[in-house]
């Protein structure tokens, strides 16, 4: 990759997103990779490398990648990182930036749509409430107007609308 | 002992036996769980998309509990870590709380920062205690060999849980199992993640992660895997047949939520604890206990 294609300001951009504050502390020891359960199965998820690419300024390559979406959020690396880089949170920061650039992974667009409209990741159907009643469990109201409103306030409803129209 | 009960999105739909058994054992042990229909998703599933919205959702839930004057007890480990983290941030960062409240006020809510959050099993361990639970055992589980699975977000990030557990060598669940008379056994990669968070992103990786744990647990020969998160439960119980077919394996490993195990020891009926709702049949385990 040509040096001219690198974005030296990318690392600073990441540090300004919540969770990305400590990205520049990484000294590439690889402790994150060693304990990573996803990395053990799928080599394309390489947290050490993702952070290196970020610090080097490979903005487009990182934000448009499919690998940033593979963190299982187990936080093993966060507990063990000697530099307190907070890798799962850096991944969140990168994914938030990717979404702003229009690179949202389809499963996350689906999640946002469900939560933005239903207030829940797994919507409550009539069937669910019937089953709950049979077991003596309280009924759950299927929608949540306040969450819908929060999505309007932060603009995340537009993201889910746009996906829904496709 | 009284808490606002936060069941989360997953358990009420996918593992009603977990919710049911938690409510039953809570009642038996004098732990009062107050329902609030206003609770919604904790925010965790959209942190990757937009952390501001995720934090607002967590704060909104905290404000629901605050208006009831109660702390939160949840049966989902993901909800526990997300809400506990938000609670900590909003308690100590006045500026952040102010910013959050500017938005919350638009939906008629405010959060003052007073709600604490605990997972159900932590409440059992800290508020009731293993000794008290031991004294309530009506039917010892002696003879059962059980493997525990903590679930990542019961332990990590450890800083949001006031370091009440050791994230590498946890003990609370094992001790809560031992006081019921059952034997707990360790196994290879005990702390391994279930993979549930990325099941909808890449099911190949997620199911392979779950398969490895099923292998490791199966290799030591136990009566059941015991856990406390609806997502882990869906990976190991609901998806066990899928994994068996995909990897040409046979496990038939019962997967129980801790309140189901506790409930059996407290003398509750298996049906009351929803054991008939578990995907992998638990009849062998029950006949071993002669219930």
Plain-language structure description:
The complex is a heterodimer of chains A (166) and B (291). Chain A has 166 residues and is mainly alpha-helical. Chain A has 2 domains: 7-100, Alpha-helical ferredoxin (Fumarate Reductase Iron-sulfur Protein, Chain B, domain 2); 106-165, no CATH class. In chain A, 55% of the residues lie in helices and 0% in strands. Chain B is an alpha/beta fold. Chain B has 2 domains: 2-119, Up-down Bundle (Glutathione S-transferase Yfyf (Class Pi), Chain A, domain 2); 129-288, Rossmann fold, CATH 3.40.50. Chain B is 47% helix and 9% strand. Chain B contains 14 helices and 8 strands. Chain B has a 4-stranded parallel beta sheet with strand order 2-1-3-4, sandwiched between helices. In chain B, α2 packs across α13 (258-265) and α3 crosses α4 (77-92). The longest helix of chain B is centred in the first third of the chain and has 18 residues, at 51-68. The mean pLDDT of chain B is 97. The chains are: A mainly alpha (166), B alpha/beta (291). At the A-B interface, α3, α6, α7, α8 and α9 of A face α1, α2, α3 and α10 of B.
